Amino acid sequence: MCSSALANFFIEKAKKDNIEMTNLKLQKLMFIGYGWTLALINKDLTDGEGFQAWQHGPVLPSVYHEMKRFGNSQINVFATDYDSEEGKIYIPTIQNEQVVSILEKAWHVYKTFSAWSLRNLTHEKDSPWDKTKTIGTSIASDCVKTYYLEYLDKLLSEEC
Q: Please, are residues 108 and 29 in contact by the beta-carbon 8 Å criterion?
């Protein structure tokens, strides 16, 4: 699975639900989805690329650079990837039903949050972004997994 497929999941959901999707909001939703999936099924949705700690929170660099042309405006295209065997550009999607189910739940919880609310959420004390400290460095997947295991445990405890 590639980073573009993760981005496209949320871009498609935003289009279907008529919700504005900016690069900032996309980055935070991808990070949350990545965290939930690492915590629940130990699956890396970035194919090893991982997130970096940037000034405004966790960022998946490849997707950021592809979508930065939109600035603060709504993203209106899907992310692409290149198939070297076929020699063509394509729009990747997530095929794993378990992953889709987890991301659907994350989307349901966070879709109405503003980009800045999501940014603040990823900046909370002791979050993976906060623990990384140095801007521009990779956020350790083990740190993300541990954080979201605890976060989801608290979230589920509150609902019962």
A: no
